[in-house]
What we know:
Strand order of the largest sheet: 1-2-4-3-5-6-7-8
CATH architecture: 3-Layer(aba) Sandwich
CATH superfamily: Alpha/Beta hydrolase fold, catalytic domain
Distance between the termini: 27 Å
Mean pLDDT: 97
Helix content: 25-40%
Low-confidence stretches: none
Shape: globular
Radius of gyration: 17 Å
CATH topology: Rossmann fold
Amino acid sequence: MTEHLSIPTPAGSFDAIAAGPEDGRGVLLLHGFPQSSLEWSHQLAELGTHGYRAIAFDQRGYSPGVRPSEVAEYTDEQLCADVLAVADELGWSRFDLVGHDWGAYVAWATAAGSPDRVRTLTAVSVPHPAPFREAVRTDEDQQTRSRYMQTFRQAGVTERAFAENPQAFAALFERAVPHDHVREYLERLAEPGALTAALNWYRAMHLNGPVDPVTVPTMYVWSTEDVAVGSTAALATEHYVTGPYRFEMLEDLTHWLPEQAAERLSALLLEHLAAHRA
């Protein structure tokens, strides 16, 4: 059964959902844009059933208790610090880390910067930041896929579009996400300051530094119909993991894998965790 938690940290209190026994092996799951911890519902249930203590929290800007207004408060330094602060509050000296979309970016950066804390990494959709940045710089296909970011970075533009027609944002999910999840995501974005906070992740990108190669056991899951991430960066990610590496390419699926391919992703995650128990 899923539990609702409030996790206090020096930055504020994060809303979270959890499943599994409190003494189970800790797995922390990070959501992407423009979602919330809700996207991990299926994975939380499966992990809990298999004895893991799985917790997904609404990240900075998504939790009302941690919603600063300044762009500079959304750099990868703060986002990674949030992950470690949450793990500290949970009493987890080491934990398995899972991320999708922006959550994958934060997971890559956290695993690279704190390999002593992260037992395993599972990144969904978004590749290691280094090959992604290189693809945005040099690959025409990835440049086309990433043009939406330019709009998101413009102050007020996306906020005005959302205010005029919130339901238009449902198209982002490509009919791959359950309707009740989409409805909740849109309702959360309509909270005061919530959409700007979520967009500040994009607006702070120029403040982020390089991310080192990852040394912990890593699984990267990418789908061939992902409109945001092309094959160039996805295939190059193997060169930025020096530890055990597993790449899973899922055919004919979109960017929204935790919900569109919930059972398949949960099975892959359980296999990856079982393979690396140390």
